[in-house]
Specification:
The protein contains 2 helices and 12 strands, in the order ββββααββββββββ. By secondary structure, the protein is mainly beta. The protein folds into 2 domains: 65 residues, no CATH class; 67 residues, Beta Barrel (OB fold (Dihydrolipoamide Acetyltransferase, E2P)), CATH 2.40.50.100. It starts with a strand and ends with a strand.
């Protein structure tokens, strides 16, 4: 298990990475747990094992953001998991969504991240628009 303190746009994140399988890890970011898959792009032939492992470990916190995830801090609000820019909104007010449906695509840490519904529901309010910059925990969408 590796622990990191990462700063993004002036915001600090406590990240714990526990590699559980060849390309799977359990990642915790500021107390929110994620099961992630990752692909290491830092493989060098003949590199010592500790160097290869150390190079691939930081990739997990970045990849965790792009994994399908639901980030809710209340029963009906979907919130931004970290600071970023809204790339697109895949729903409109009144749409019915199922748990796991991608409702917003957000760019953060130079990666596109699918923000998904954490429960079945109807889109009540959309708090953001495409191109808008958001902070961690800003409300994106309310479901009823």
């Amino acid at each position: 298990m590796n622990k990191y303190k990462i700063t993004i746009d002036g915001n600090d994140f406590d990240v714990t990475v526990d590699v559980t399988d060849h390309n799977k890890a359990k990642v915790e970011v500021n107390g929110l747990a994620y099961e992630v898959t990752y692909e290491s792009k830092n493989v060098t032939a003949g590199a010592p094992a500790p160097v290869a492992r150390k190079a691939s470990a930081p990739a997990a916190p970045q990849v965790q953001v792009s994994a399908p995830q639901a980030t809710t801090n209340s029963a009906s609000s979907i919130k931004a998991p970290l600071p970023g820019t809204i790339s697109s909104i895949n729903v409109k007010v009144g749409d019915q969504v199922k748990r796991g449906d991608t409702v917003v695509v957000m760019e953060a840490m130079k990666m596109e991240n699918n923000i998904v519904a954490s429960k079945d529901g109807k889109v009540k309010t959309i708090h953001v628009s495409a191109g808008q910059t958001v902070a961690q925990d800003d409300k994106l969408i309310d479901l009823e």
